[in-house]
Amino acid sequence: AGENFDQSPLRRTFKSKVLAHYPQNIEWNPFDQDAVNMLCMPKGLSFRTQTDNRDPQLHSFIITREDGSRTYGFVLTFYEEVTSKQICTAMQTLYQMHNAEQYSSVCASSSCSMDSLASSIDEGDATSLAKLQRYNSYDISRDTLYVSKCICLITPLPFMQACKKFLIQLYKAVTSQQPPPLPLESYIHNILYEVPLPPPGRSLKFYGVYEPIICQRPGPNELPLSDYPLREVFELLGLENLVQVFTCVLLEMQILLYSQ
Q1: Could you tell me the end-to-end alpha-carbon distance of the chain, in angstroms, rounded to an integer?
Q2: Scanning 1, 160, 162, 235, which has the fewest C-beta atoms within 10 Å of its C-beta?
Q3: pTM of the full structure
Q4: Long-range contacts for 109-116 (Cβ within 8 Å, ≥24 apart)?
Q5: pLDDT digits (tens, 9 = 90+) for 105-121
Q6: Where is the UDENN domain (predicted)?
Q7: How many whole angstroms separate alpha carbon 31 and alpha carbon 26?
Q8: How many angstroms separate the CA atoms of 122 and 164, rounded?
Q9: Does residue 201 contact residue 219 with C-beta atoms inside 8 Å?
Q10: CA separation for the pair 54, 116 (Å, rounded)
Q11: Cα angle 169, 175, 179; round to 5
């Protein structure tokens, strides 16, 4: 996806797609496959090996429609082992092509001819080439290939903590060696069809896969639901930046937050 061919294959991004979604359609919230696909994996599909960090990560997004209505998405991204030998072989081929191109560029920077590669590369270029081949390599017989995958929950209200807990429990059930008491489909059906929205001003307790989950909904005269932890805002922005943002809000200035 995109023109990032200068990067090693494991650092490139690939096109992703929606594998499945349930239910197939909701009248008040039709499924926007392109938007959900882009917002679930904004950087595209990515690959890792056993030497890379593969900790699950959670993020959220908002889809705002033409009439101003909003739906909220909560995404847990994780990595699972690639079982297709065809994909593993293709990754190794990409690496062979990439390393050949890098080798050629190192030689070109040394002004060497193809007949005297070994003798013409100086010590610095040889060292950089060795590092390149050591860190930018994938061996199908030695390395285990993993690919990114995500599960997403789309809701009418931003119940971040409840959705986060449910997705984490669902992920544990998927990856656990010991399966949960009921089939996974039972828990998905439960949260989609049997767990109602809590009435305004009330709390709701329902059971996830392993533990109970609580979500609260503000009353009509209370502030809108903001289920995002304030501590993370301080950690990400810092005290001075947060005070500056708050000052800009009070002065009714336009604010743009940009991040990766």
Answers
A1: 17
A2: 235
A3: 0.77
A4: none
A5: 666 665 555 454 444 44
A6: 1-260
A7: 7
A8: 53
A9: yes
A10: 42
A11: 80
